[in-house]
Amino acid sequence: xxxxxxxxxxxxxxxxxxxxxxxxxxxxxxxxxxxxxxxxxxxxxxxxxxxxxxxxxxxxxxxxxxxxxxxxxx
Length: 74
Fold this sequence. Notes:
By secondary structure, the chain is an all-alpha fold. The chain is 51% helix and 0% strand. The longest helix is centred in the middle third of the chain and has 24 residues. The termini are far apart. The mean pLDDT is 91.
């Protein structure tokens, strides 16, 4: 059985600070969730997929001035 979860964010959000915090949370989830997923007999997200997602966040989700709201070092 498989399922998908979608998280929708504006590419240019009105509240950049809140969106930035959400991205930090999701990055933390990807960084820490793999082990938890395995412990619960789920398959963790492949590292390549996580990297691609984070690259997309960095290139597509920006504040009003065009500054990315996510960087892999956040």
